[in-house]
Specification:
This protein is mainly alpha-helical and 98 residues long. It has 5 helices and no strands.
């Protein structure tokens, strides 16, 4: 039996291979920030201090409007199609309720 392979099965769009890995990395950065922001301590003092520090760094990253770094919060939101202001508002609501 002869198997036919269509071009769409082995060819990608010209730019797809360059854009996709960067967006995956941007999503991973954003997921790490979300995880750090939402991290709860397990009751041990060292872990509680580390969780507070991670949350503080995540809060500072989310609050920053600096666009000079390619992986800044503002640039990541723009690249993946999110409104940075709306995302910040969600985190502000979460922060206020805790």
């Amino acid at each position: 039996m002869i198997h036919v392979m269509l071009p769409v099965q082995y060819l990608r769009r010209a730019r797809a291979h360059r854009v996709e890995p960067q967006k995956r990395l941007m999503l991973a950065v954003l997921q790490t920030v979300i995880d750090d922001f939402q991290r709860s301590s397990d009751g041990r003092p060292a872990s509680a201090a580390a969780a507070r520090e991670a949350r503080g760094k995540a809060r500072a990253y989310l609050a920053s409007t600096d666009r000079t770094w390619p992986f800044s919060f503002e640039n990541i939101c723009e690249a993946i199609g999110l409104d940075a202001h709306s995302v910040r508002a969600q985190f502000d609501q979460t922060d206020a309720s805790t």
